[in-house]
Amino acid sequence: MGKILSTKNLRLYYGKSEALHGISLKFLDGEITALIGPSGCGKSTYLRCLNRMNDLLDNVTITGTIKLQGKDIYSPKMSKSEIRKKIGMVFQQPNPFPFSIYDNVAYGPRISGVKDKKVLDEIVETSLKKAAIWDEVKDDLKKNAVALSGGQQQRVCIARTLAVNPDVILLDEPTSALDPISSVKVESTLMDIKKDYNIILVTHNMQQASRISDKTAFMLNGRLIEFDKTEKMFLNPENKITSDYLNGRFG
Amino acid sequence: MKNSLKEKFLSPSKQTYQESFGKIISSFCILIIIALVVSILGFVTTKGIDTFTQSKINVFDFLFGNVWSPSSTGANGKPEVGAAPMIVTSFTVTLISAAIATPFAIACAIFMTFIANNRGSRLLRSTIELLVGIPSVIYGYIGLTLVVPLVRSIYGGTGFGILAGAIVLFVMILPTVTSLTVDSIKSVPDYYIKASYGLGATRWQTIYKVVLKISLPGILTAVIFGMTRAFGEALAVQMVIGNSITMPTNLTTPASTLTSQLTTGIGNTIMGTLQNNALWSLALVLLFMSLFFNILIKIIGKRGAAKYES
Ligand SMILES: Nc1ncnc2c1ncn2[C@@H]1O[C@H](COP(=O)(O)OP(=O)(O)OP(=O)(O)O)[C@@H](O)[C@H]1O
Ligand SMILES: [Mg+2]
């Protein structure tokens, strides 16, 4: 239960323009939290703060605090690569390396210094199983991951993230490039693994948010409008804007 | 009125004329280029095989023989035209210069793409591109006044030789290898790099395990391009290598490459004689080698592309 991630008054500036206007949220272990909101409201920006991927961009200023298990992940004592091992990320476009499936999943453990073939084999197998892709690829682990279908690639990417054994998994519209059947597979993968992780999911798909998330956060123009249990949010939102958005009345 | 409209539609438009005009011009240019290439190949080949057809020199003796003296008669009653010393020397300078240039080029490329800010990398890039424009004779002259004495003071002897040649060639091919390596490294898609960082890799791990791995075919192509240049460079090499046709036994005694022998010899021989034809045979070897390098580049390029597409 120690995998709680929280942000407090998080502000982000691209150059001089403020893209996030003080967001405070708390994500719990064993839950899927959905981040929803119209395009450009800052969901991806917010998500990238959570594992310090915004550090790769120039000219970004971040204020406020982000804590994982009570420790500030932006404190100078924390190493970025250690943080990213604890807070993994799955991207919108499936982006497996153009290596074999095995090498893709083994990438994380290898950079952490795992060399033993047996240990690697084991990690690769369990990760692929957790990502519900093992049965489809187990006979062909040497195959180039780029040759898989988009949905398979995305599940390999999830497996690759799981192989690092993170506490938190960030997913930025992981199914938006996939067909409905592959999307459902990825969704059920997330449902299967959620008890062991703290999952944060950006999605434009309201059905998806209502199907799989425990909590939902609604953002608009860089602000958090409402954050609650998904059921409550979809049936009976506090805020008029939230209900308008959920009913497709704008954005 | 009706008729003229019909005519207008049926007669070819201005664009059609322009298009066929353009087609004719470009086909004409292509034909000229093809004719040029074919005639160069044909010319060098006919000249080059005269040595074997007219003077009855054995091809094996030519490729593997150690003695080069086309103007005197050797032990077997025929002139000796063994090109092996030059072939070996050409390969040696090429390989050594490429071996030094490659790590330099990769280091420069990584610095430019991952470490330097925009201004720094542009500065480095234009410096390197400047090196391309310098004429060979200047490189040779600098080699003669700096590299040869340096080699002499360290290893003794005259200072002329393979090492001096390789060092000069290294500087000459560095820009080619570097700019092609930079292109190859820059073409690695950003999402692979992000994926690697996202998995907790450090910058060096990302460069080493993702960027270099993915750009490897491109880097190999860059190196082979550099080798083609090194193999074919004549003037600068001729100025520092010592021009002595002996099988090289070390890197600091005078030697001679195919190209340096060609430039030294071609002015001093008479067309149609064996001495002259033998030089054409050397040119033929050069031509085959550049063909070989080109094919190698094509193969590596195809392999690299297949990796992405498969
Ligand atoms: N690298 C950047 N530099 C400058 N501004 C940026 C950058 N990335 C995003 N922005 C701006 O920040 C705001 C939020 O963008 P963000 O990508 O986080 O939105 P989003 O909610 O993820 O949208 P979408 O649903 O379309 O993915 C936008 O106004 C965008 O223009
Ligand atoms: Mg986004």
From TrEMBL, chain A:
Which SUPFAM superfamilies would you find in this protein's record? P-loop containing nucleoside triphosphate hydrolases
Q: Name one GO molecular function term.
A: ATP binding
- Keyword ATP-binding belongs to the record: yes
- The record places domain ABC transporter at 5-246
Among InterPro entries, the record links this protein to: AAA+_ATPase, ABC_transporter-like_ATP-bd, ABC_transporter-like_CS, P-loop_NTPase, PstB-like
PROSITE patterns assigned: ABC_TRANSPORTER_1, ABC_TRANSPORTER_2
What keywords are assigned to this protein?
ATP-binding, Nucleotide-binding, Phosphate transport, Transport
Q: Which SMART domains match?
A: AAA (SM00382)
The protein here is known as Phosphate ABC transporter ATP-binding protein PstB
According to its UniProt entry, this protein's organism is Apilactobacillus xinyiensis
Its organism's taxonomic lineage begins at: Bacteria, Bacillati, Bacillota, Bacilli, Lactobacillales
Gene name, please? pstB
